[in-house]
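It is worth pausing here to work through a concrete case rather than discussing structure prediction in the abstract. The textbook approach is simple: state the sequence, then state the predicted structure, then interpret. We follow exactly that order.
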Amino acid sequence: MNIRLDLMIPELFLFCWAIVVLTADLFFIKEKKNILLYMSQFGFLAAAALVIFTPTGPYEMAFKWMFINDPFASFFKIVILLAGFMAVSSSYEAVQKSIEHKGEFFGLVIMSAVGMMFLVSSGELVSLYVALELSTIPLFILTAFQKRYLKSSEAGLKYLILGAFSSALLLYGISFMYGMTGTTVLIAGSINILQYSNSMHFGLVMALALVVAGLGFKLALVPFHMWAPDVYEGAPTPITSYLSVASKAAGLGALVRIIYGFFTVGTASDYWGLLIAILAAMAMIVGNVAAILQSNIKRMLAYSSIAQAGYILVGFVAASQLGLSGISIYIFAYLFANMGAFAVVVAVGHKLNSDKIEDYAGMARRSPLIAGSMTVFLLSLAGIPPTAGFIAKYKVFMAAIENGTLLWLVMIAVATTVVSIFYYARVIKEMFITEREVAANPEGRWILSSPITIAILVGLLGTLIIGIFPQPFLELASTVTQSFVY
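Step two, the predicted structure:
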């Protein structure tokens, strides 16, 4: 057995760092516990640097096929770690105001990231499921972390119940996959399918449906999305942002591993494309239409996140090199725009103690940085040039058009993109045009803390640089395609 611990250095480091943060909490007095935030920031950045310097290739694997460190895994690990860095950076105000157990808070965020990193590197079903649980269980706790806040407790309970249900569905699907092929290794299972696919028809279709349902929860796809609005609203806002990006990236990575590595051969290959395309269409329609009706910005961004998952799956269904590079650049662009938008929500919520969209009125006068940055983030989520979101949408749409059979899905995507502009523009209108007494601020212009300013600026720079100079990032995303054979 090829025990290659050198391939796991980023994960092992981050796991140990989580323990260091938890332990360090015991030695700092209450006034000094902000050091834990800076330690967490360092941990995420150091782990990202280790990912870059860890050996990467299509055949770099440990424990046979249980752990794969290919370009696909490395790319998604960078996304997860950057999301973690921006989440802890934007948590400064929340930690100061309402988070009591700071060491546990940051330790759980880091531990969840470790699970997500193992998840996108898993080439074997049991290790994939264990990694999924390692990433999800800390998130259950973090969602309900503000235990004196009723909505946070409610959100944590809903997330726990539905998360357990989705895990059961995924595990049941995995049992079908093992029963049909006699192995839990994805590549070995696909080889067995090629040999005996005629006798596996029903079992493979059942496995496909159950796996997509289980991972559809992680991606908040319709009809597995019912948890998202309440959880996004009730959870601490930095955790909401982390859920919307890191958890979605990890779930997408697992879905790509299983579908492209297992279900693209045999009889199930005739079904998965249509199934994913229907889920993508439902997510785009339901997410965008429901977002129009929201008055709470966290709930609006929750439904927006559902719609964004649909756009990502447009490139996924294309099942081509262009499609895979498209979803990679999309998740990268989505990282900066969505994490940046939630950082703004954290800052505004701390100042006004409100998440209502109408309370953003006059924001341009009180904080040009917040208003300008939020405008860029929302335009990127809508896919307006010259932002990263435009490049991302263009790539996934072109991949679907190149496929030839997905024009109907592209038409739905374009139509719902137009719909999304309405509710994104509503927030921009409130910030720059609308003036209300409720939004009056006797303290004048706002001064933001350094950590949350860093989170906003990282999101702003990432969104604009990818949109204006996309070529290096497109080339980076294209390296992901080396991990799969078409």
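Step three, interpretation. Residues 438-442 have pLDDT under 50 and may be disordered. The radius of gyration is 21 Å.
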